[in-house]
Amino acid sequence: MKVLFFATIRDLTGGKETQVSGVSTVRDLLEVLSVRYGPAFRRKALEGTEPSPELIVLVNGHHIAHLRGGDTPLSEGDQVSLFPVIGGG
């Protein structure tokens, strides 16, 4: 599947996208990406074993909060977008 990185997440990954295969849930994907991109990415992406509230995860344009959270199933043809939560005022 294609994984797209936005804003400060790109700083942690060094690129704007990657390909990942062999994962079945958002939780699995974030774990694989944490191993790939290291501790700074892990701190931003995961809180324990759950997706961090500091990360917005969209699967095919749908926020995982409206799906099954970390248990949201993934397929090879999916597109996952990762955004940092950005405050504004």
Explain this structure:
With 89 residues, this protein is an alpha+beta fold. It is built from 3 helices and 7 strands, in the order E-H-E-H-H-E-E-E-E-E. The chain has helices at 8-13, 26-37, 39-45, and strands at residues 2-5, 17-19, 46-47, 50-51, 55-59, 62-63, 79-84. The protein has a 5-stranded mixed sheet with strand order 2-1-7-5-6. Strands 3-4 form a two-stranded antiparallel sheet. A hairpin with a 2-residue loop joins strand 3 and strand 4. Helix 2 (26-37) packs antiparallel against helix 3. It is globular and about 25 Å long. It starts with a strand and ends in a 5-residue tail after the last strand. The model has no long low-confidence stretch (mean pLDDT 95).
Question: Which descriptors apply to this entry?
Answer:
89 residues, alpha+beta, five-stranded mixed β-sheet, 7 strands, 28% helix
In a few lines, what is going on in this structure?
With 89 residues, the chain is an alpha+beta fold. 28% of the residues lie in helices and 27% in strands.
What order do the strands of the largest sheet run in, or round the barrel if closed? 2-1-7-5-6
Structural class: alpha+beta
Oligomer: single chain
| Total count of helical runs of at least 4 residues | 3
| Total strands | 7
Low-confidence stretches: none
